[in-house]
Design brief:
By secondary structure, the chain is mainly α. It has helices at about 80-110, 115, 130-140, 145-175, 180-190, 195-210, 215-240, 245-250, 255-265, 270-285, 290-295, 300-305, 320-340. Among the domains are: about 80-115; about 140-340, MetI-like fold (Orthogonal Bundle). Helices cover about 55% and strands about 0% of the residues. The chain is globular, with a radius of gyration of 43 Å. Keywords: Cell membrane, Membrane, Transmembrane, Transmembrane helix, Transport.
Length: about 350
């Protein structure tokens, strides 16, 4: 009876037939996982514990992707955004000081007595505040009449400019034609014309129409002068209104005028208020046109009346002048403080779903 040899090695012909090869003489399979002779495990078999992902070495992340070290407690890292924000606040503070300095000095001067006004060492806070400067200002000049004239001219001119500029801005914003582009360019260029360039032709035209030394002529000039700026501002506000709202109104049968009044008009309320406010302040503070076109003292506006506090030799009566200038400044400040809450840009939020 012959014995079968192991599958790994045949028996030598010199060895006896009945002798089996020793276990040391048979080749052993390499136990390392990299040996090619080892059979790969089946994909269906569960992974072995020694081949789990936790035991495999991981590649170290690059140093660039590592998070920065934690800053010491009580100190925040300085970034470009922080530096930029600090620069913005610093510039805003400088601009605020630049605007507030003349106004604070005006308020301080209006309440100082003549002795403190001529002092070689002026102070911010009056040592002996007085109201004599306001009494003198009202006694010397007709400030109430001048304020009424300025209020009438500024309010009427701002209202007329808004009424005329709103439909014109709607046409320029919605009709993208060459004429609309040319008109918009002309509006911007017209603001660069100096007043001296137009005052003589304007005076001749008003003289022909018998509107010199008349409040109506001054209001007409203010309307023409503020209309380009109002038109330019309202055009931008109209373009910000989504056209889908007007298309929906057109589907419901609304015409252009009905769409402008009922749909676009309410959405333009912040822009109309802001534009009217700027037109009012411009007309309230205007001096050159009122000086040239108005000659009667009872028709002159507030800026023109303020020049009467200057003497014949150019010496200013500083106390009453400061008091009158403060009174002339307050209406525009109060109007802006009341209306600025209504100037908001969030009225269009959620009006149209994208």
């Amino acid at each position: 009876m012959t014995h079968d040899s192991p599958p790994g090695k045949r028996p030598s012909p010199d060895s006896p037939a009945g002798e089996r090869p020793s276990p040391d003489s048979s080749p052993r399979e390499d136990a390392s996982p990299d040996s090619p002779s080892r059979k790969a495990p089946s994909s269906d078999s569960p992974p072995r514990k020694d081949q789990s992902s936790d035991s495999l070495p991981r590649k170290a992340p690059p140093t660039d992707s590592l998070p920065p070290e934690n800053p010491p407690p009580g100190r925040r890292p300085v970034t470009r955004r922080t530096v930029g924000r600090a620069g913005q606040y610093l510039a805003l503070l400088c601009y605020l000081v630049f605007l507030a300095f003349p106004f604070l000095w005006l308020v301080s001067t209006a309440f100082k007595p003549p002795r403190e006004l001529g002092s070689l060492h002026p102070t911010w806070i009056p040592r002996a505040p007085t109201l004599d400067n306001f009494r003198t200002a009202f006694d010397e000049q007709p400030l109430l009449q001048a304020a009424a004239n300025s209020l009438l001219a500024a309010a009427v001119s701002a209202l007329v400019a808004i009424v005329l500029a709103t439909p014109m801005a709607y046409v320029l914003a919605r009709l993208r034609t060459r004429f609309a582009r040319a008109a918009t360019g002309w509006v911007v260029v017209s603001q660069a014309f100096p007043l001296v360039l137009v005052i003589i032709p304007l005076f001749l035209v008003l003289k022909t129409l018998h509107l010199v030394d008349a409040r109506t002529g001054l209001i007409l000039v203010y309307v023409v002068w503020s209309l380009p700026f109002a038109l330019w501002m309202l055009t931008g506000y109209v373009r910000a209104v989504p056209p889908e709202l007007e298309e929906a109104a057109a589907v419901d049968g609304a015409g252009r005028l009905r769409t402008l009044v009922s749909v676009t008009g309410p959405l333009l309320a912040p822009g109309i208020v802001a534009t009217g406010l700027f037109a009012f302040i411009t007309a309230w503070n205007e001096f050159f046109f009122a000086l040239v076109l108005l000659k009667s003292p009872e028709k002159q506006t507030m800026p023109v009346v303020l020049t009467h506090f200057l003497g014949a030799e150019g010496v200013a009566d500083l106390g009453p002048l400061a008091a009158a200038a403060l009174l002339a400044t307050l209406p525009s400040l109060l109007l802006f403080a009341v209306i600025q809450r209504r100037i908001t840009g969030g009225m269009l939020a959620g009006a149209v779903k994208n």
